[in-house]
Each structure stands twice: as structure tokens, then as C-alpha cells.
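Mods, move this if it's the wrong board.
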Amino acid sequence: MNGLGMRQEAFCRRFVECANATLAAKIAGYAPGSARNAGYRLLRRPRVIARIAALHRELAQQQCRDVDIMLGKLETIYRRAIDTQQCSAAARAVELQAKLSAGALTPPAASGAGRQTSATRPGNAPLPAAAGIARAAANDDGA
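Not the wrong board. C-alpha cells:
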């Protein structure tokens, strides 16, 4: 075991989710009136810091697996688009693969608030052909 109590473990998990010590302490069961101080104290404990780091590593590994799965699905979409001569859908699939590989589709950091990404930039909505191919690829995954 990691040497943490149940509330400390809950705090670590909630802190990884929300990055707010006060909120994480409240959700973990610390008294609302003292949650700010509890969060501050917990973030100074070496075991809590180590557990949060371990949870961040686990999360990063999971996200890498998710990206690999998405890249594989986009490759399927690309191949089908090429086979059916839908060049714009193929180009869009390649663009999304490049952005995923570079990490451009991750949520912007706090310092990058307001920055436009492909998901928020006007005129960059998914192409209908790509959406149709994506649905077809998703339906064929079980076959």
C-alpha cells in the first residue's frame, strides 16, 4: 500500500481530477471550513506528493493508449477515404493524425486560455464525408 489513509487517497485522486486542493479536500471528506488548510497541508506531505505523481503517470499512460487507438481508427478512415476517392476526407484524417501525434488536440493549458485550436477555429468543422466514413469504421471494428 502507499501508506495513505482513505481520505488522503481520495484527496489525491480528486486533486488529479480538478487540480484544486480546497475542492479536492472537500470532496475527500474534510470539513468545508478547514478544507483550504487541509489541502495546503496535504500538498506538503511527501507521500501525498508521490501518490499524486503516480496518479499523473497512470493517467498519462492511459491517455497514450487512447491516442494510439484514435490514430488507428483515423488510419482506417484514411484508407477507406482513399479507396472511395474522397480526397477531402483523407486529407482531414491525415491532418487529425498529425495533430494527435503532436498533442495539438489536448485541452489548452491555463496559460493558453483563449487560444484557438482546430476544434474551436471557425470553418474547421468535421467534413460530412469523414463523419460518414468514421461511423462506418466504428461499425466495422466489431467484425
